[in-house]
Amino acid sequence: VDDEEGGVLFLPGSNSLSSSSSSSGYGYVSIEKQRQRLPVYKYRNAILYLVETHATTIIVGETGSGKTTQIPQYLIEAGWAAGGRLIACTQPRRLAVQAVASRVSQEMGVQLGEQVGYTIRFEDVTKQDVTALKFLTDGVLLREMMADPLLTKYSVIMVDEAHERSISTDILLGLLKKIQRRRPELRLIIASATIEAKSMADFFRPRKKRREPKNEEIGLKVEPAILSVEGRGFNVQINFAEEPVHDYVQAAVSTVLSIHERESTGDILVFLTGQDDIDAAVHLLNEDMQTNGKHSSGLVILPLYSGLPRAEQELVFSPTLRGKRKVVISTNIAETSLTLEGIVYVVDTGFSKQRFYNPISDIENLVVAPISRASARQRAGRAGRVRPGKCYRLYTEEYFLNHMSNEGTPEIQRSNLVSCVIQLKALGIDNILGFDWPASPSPEAMIRALEVLYSLGILDDDAKLTSPTGFQVAEIPLDPMISKMIIASSQLGCSEEIITIAAVLSVQSIWISGRGIQKDSDEAKLRFAAAEGDHVTFLNVYKGFHQSGKSSQWCHKNYVNYHAMKKVLEVREQLKRIAQRIGLVLKSCESDMQMVKKAVTAGFFANACRLEAYSHNGMYKTLRGSEEVYVHPSSVLFRVNPKWVIYNSLVSTDRQYMRNVMTIDPSWLLEAAPHFYKLQQPNLLH
Ligand code: ADP
Ligand code: MG
């Protein structure tokens, strides 16, 4: 083991480094040397040879071994980007796309957005004819196929983090396999941290009967190559909780404090589930520092989740100051997508936010759910990168052995398939059940999706995209219900307003919230609250923000998240451009909110709910599946409980909560979707 790797030698802060050769003189290890120390470096020639000679190469290697940052650079060095061709590297997560692109551009000593660029939804940091290596989300690559079905500009496509089995990764794998038949010269690299490489190889192995003569003609092996990068992780000592933990946020905070008190130097990585509990943990730790300084002095507490401002994201990668201990409190993005140097202690709460879909009730939920044993092992592994480490699991060994599943279920088997179906249809793939999936989605979910798309007017009787609505919806990179709402608004003359609402719905939250400020922020919200509900409230906030001259002070005063509002402005501009491109009319309805509400209903009629007549606790039932739901406390309609509402999405904790809720007149439902609500008609009359 190189002793220089002992957690002391770090890269200078991300922004201070502009060229790869200038760093060696400052007491840091040169970038070149760091690159050569990564486990993947020994395999450089082997990887290049396999990619040269095989249509598909599967590379398995532990997190931190250098797959994401190094392999694309090797490809450039070997000439795969020559002659104006592009190399793509996909990631399931937006935050990972930005972070690795920024890292690789530093390593190469180039400006981000020039030779090395990235594209995520609503953000394209690439330059035509200059960018040779592009990091992008798997979802964005799928969208690129709509304009260029064979992805002709790419010479090599590396599908990274394949073990995550995100819904877009799975669709992408199926489509890439098809593309390979038409473009035998295209090279695929499937990279992952765990994966049973064999099943992935089986998927890419051509069926016996259908030989692939084209590949053989150009001298390429069709049998996928598998390469396993030997890591050099250190031992990690595992500690289980002795008894089940009731409040995992509190338990995580106590564990961090006790590690800090008892253990030697080394940074701590805590796995929580999302912004809410991460903010809560950060708050508790900060509170402890103020009241009880001696335990927690020297701690530098950093949250990590997508939706965090860029500058804050980058802090987690910056070196720890001498005498300080960094505590990174993260979602499962730090499980395999991002490598943080210097972590010696991992606190694993055993949970993550996962998507679940029930085709019977047609309800999709983001749920805090137990992780799999495979994930737990990955998380523990993060403690052993620089030296032997320790992992504290906040669940019992009995639970780990008997109640956690061995591996997670691919996302496609626990998601609503509406977006997936539209994308495949837009690419001309009609037999969706017969599509070559790495893992087949359930037929029930597929039928539900077809039904919803039919009632939204996106598919016709032959299950083909309707013209123009279906094709227009496919062009808008948003949830089809939101896209449908935008298209309806063009007809109703309120697209300016609806595009604002769509932009707000696509950022995480425009409100500042958190323990300790809840009362003040609720009061601030009342200044904007509209009787119609959250959607119209958003319009009021947007208007206020505009009138203030887009002032950050105004945001601060009103508990509005300035960073989120800036994002809303950006997304709004992009949506306007898309709307114009697909021929929608941009128009404002001024103050006729009835039109706005009808447009929202045109997209979200399937999410209609009625207040239970005898309910004293605000219980609603969905019209669709009679599921019990409640207005989320963050909604301006919380405790108002109007009789008829529609919601944008559901979250479930102890109950199912509707987020972003709007009042409706039930007769609009029949107007918006006569077919959909025909059967429930008697229901609608009282
Ligand atoms: P893999 O994809 O195999 O998990 P990566 O290529 O992401 O590995 O990481 C290789 C190494 O590059 C890491 O061990 C880390 O030292 C370094 N690294 C990656 N991203 C960053 C970053 N944003 N800042 C600093 N170092 C980084
Ligand atoms: Mg990686």
Question: What do these coordinates show?
Answer:
The protein is an alpha/beta fold and 686 residues long. The strands form 3 sheets. The protein has an 8-stranded mixed beta sheet with strand order 4-3-5-2-6-7-1-8, sandwiched between helices. The chain has a 6-stranded parallel beta sheet with strand order 9-16-13-10-12-11, sandwiched between helices. Residues 1-27 have low confidence and may be disordered. It binds adenosine-5'-diphosphate and magnesium ion. Magnesium ion binds at residues 67-68, 160.
User: Main β-sheet: number of strands, strand sense, barrel status?
Assistant: 8 strands, mixed
Discrete helix count: 28
- In angstroms, what separates the terminal alpha carbons? 74 Å
| Rounded average pLDDT | 89
Distinctive features:
686 residues, alpha/beta, eight-stranded mixed sheet, six-stranded parallel sheet, 28 helices, 21 strands, 40% helix, globular, disordered N terminus, binds adenosine-5'-diphosphate, binds magnesium ion
Short description:
With 686 residues, the protein is an alpha/beta fold. Helix content is 40%, strand content 17%.
Describe the secondary-structure layout.
Elements: H1 31-37, H2 44-53, E1 56-61, H3 67-77, E2 86-91, H4 94-108, E3 116-120, E4 123-125, E5 133-137, H5 138-147, E6 154-159, H6 167-182, E7 187-192, H7 197-204, H8 213-217, E8 225-229, E9 236-240, H9 248-262, E10 267-271, H10 275-291, H11 293-296, E11 299-304, H12 310-315, E12 325-330, H13 333-336, E13 343-348, E14 351-358, E15 363-370, H14 373-381, E16 389-393, H15 397-402, H16 418-426, H17 443-455, H18 469-475, H19 480-492, H20 495-505, H21 518-526, H22 534-547, H23 552-557, H24 562-581, H25 593-604, E17 608-611, E18 620-622, E19 628-631, E20 644-652, E21 656-663, H26 667-672, H27 674-677, H28 681-684
Parallel strand pairs: 1-7, 1-8, 2-5, 2-6, 3-5, 6-7, 9-16, 10-12, 10-13, 11-12, 13-16, 15-20, 19-21
Antiparallel strand pairs: 3-4, 14-15, 17-18, 17-20, 18-19, 20-21
Helix pairs in contact: 3-4, 5-6, 9-10, 16-17, 18-19, 19-20, 19-25, 20-22, 20-24
